[in-house]
């Protein structure tokens, strides 16, 4: 069995002062570096459809309105090796044209080059889903890929 597309193609991360965030067609992932030895009881994380709040040992790390809506019941966070918090948010709108340009409405925006790479990756991920027999892991994309690339769904098979 082949690995899921995003595992083969890697991620396009957007660095932040506290860690990084990245996305797939369906999810947004947030990785927060925390002091070694952090315990789950030191973490307060609130995940809502359009809002996130994270504090560690009473210090606010991340708080604000998300760039787009998520499915509240699908959001999770984990503490890994007592030094990394990983948050997974399920996007409400899961098409390739929904490439988040920033994590929060007015913060943690991807620079133009990173944004371009994110959009390319989501477009390739969409092509992979539409064509499951093909391996797009080493593919390059150019041309019209903004907003998810061209729509071939109306073509006859």
Structural commentary:
By secondary structure, the protein is of the alpha+beta class. It has one domain: Immunoglobulin-like. Strands 1-2-3-8-7 form a five-stranded antiparallel sheet. A three-stranded antiparallel sheet has the order 4-5-6, with no helix packed on it. A hairpin with a 2-residue loop joins β5 and β6. The protein is elongated and about 45 Å long. The N terminus is likely disordered. It holds the Pfam family CS. This is NudC domain-containing protein 2. One of its GO terms (biological process) is protein folding.
Low-pLDDT residue spans: 1-8
How much of the residues is beta strand, in percent?
25-35%
Q: Which strand order do you get reading across the main beta sheet?
A: 1-2-3-8-7
Overall mean pLDDT stands at: 86
Describe how the helices and strands are arranged.
Elements: H1 5-9, E1 14-15, E2 19-23, E3 27-33, E4 43-47, E5 51-56, E6 59-65, E7 76-80, E8 84-90, E9 102-104, E10 107-109, H2 112-130
Antiparallel strand pairs: 1-2, 2-3, 3-8, 4-5, 5-6, 7-8, 9-10
Keywords: Acetylation, Centromere, Chromosome, Cytoplasm, Cytoskeleton, Kinetochore, Phosphoprotein
GO molecular function: unfolded protein binding
Domain CS: 14-104
